Amino acid sequence: MDKPSVDFLNSLGVPFFKIGSADTTNLPLLKHLCKYNKPLVISTGMTTEADVCKMYDEISKESQQIALLQCTSCYPTPPHNVNLNVIKAYEDLFPEAVIGYSGHEVGIGISLAAVASGAKILERHITLDHSYKGSDHKSSLEPDEFQNLVNEIRKIEKAMGSHRKEFQECEKPCYEKLGKTIVASRFLESGTLLNEDAMDVKVSVKKGYDPINYYDLIGKQLKTEVEKDEPISSVNFE
């Protein structure tokens, strides 16, 4: 890309500029792009962390609309050269930027992992046929593969869910069938002081105290009788 190309693209009304890895460190070009006040999506192949940091420090003075894409400029990219962990490193280094991934690997698996790793933008090249001449076609996606990638990303977006661990409504049938509870290991008379010999943990259709409360019950006195293998619950202490 050069400055006349930038001016031409802007005349077409493009909503943002995508900068390839060959221009990641091209500060004069990047500063020219900033004049149009449009988002910059910058791939970072063929660079070091120091290069990216210096570029970002310079360009962020003139633009607050920057996205950085982890990228390895190798066609196709072997898995061990992808370095998806850079996505998290970029999130820490550039908290004001949007972080993404530009992939040149074969298939969609690594790109899906990039999304699960936090990539907010995903770039993949598209081809009509992998057998066409040129190394880029091997690492690109055919239309049906691209559609599959998008479909799988939509599933991942749903699957990421919440940061909060909670018991979910859909787990109820499994809990009712397999969930364990604290039961009496033998017939227990009213007045029994509970100890480890008096209690067991078993699968039971009827539910009492969850085993997480096992040691909290030691030393508690029963106010009712409890048959062997019957769940121990709050009603036994009323």
TrEMBL record:
TM helices/strands, residue ranges: none
GO annotation, biological process: carbohydrate biosynthetic process
Gene3D superfamilies according to UniProt: Aldolase class I, Antifreeze-like/N-acetylneuraminic acid synthase C-terminal domain
Entry-linked PROSITE patterns: AFP_LIKE (PS50844)
Occurrences of domain AFP-like (ranges): 181-238
A GO term for molecular function: N-acylneuraminate-9-phosphate synthase activity
Name of the protein in question: AFP-like domain-containing protein
